[in-house]
Specification:
77 residues; mainly alpha; Helix Hairpins
């Protein structure tokens, strides 16, 4: 069963949820089915966080390209 994450879930909330899942899984006292369900949700949250980071990196790259080297303090040749 695939776990879906809300597309508008903010990065900070997704990361906090992922950290809580890791904490619970590392505790080692969960029944197998619950551990598997948490692992599946954790993987979905990790993918969501990575997608948000990728989008943020792309935005920063585009902004830097639009700014040009003179605004970024780079010297041209």
């Amino acid at each position: 069963m695939a776990t879906t994450i809300e597309a508008d879930l903010p990065f900070e909330q997704a990361l906090a949820a992922l950290e809580e899942i890791v904490r619970r899984l590392e505790g080692g006292e969960l029944p197998l089915e619950e551990a598997l369900a948490l692992y599946e949700r954790g993987m979905a949250l990790a993918q969501h966080c990575q997608e948000l980071l990728d989008r943020a990196e792309l935005r920063v790259t585009r902004l830097a390209e639009e700014a040009g080297p003179e605004l970024l303090g780079e010297e041209g040749g």
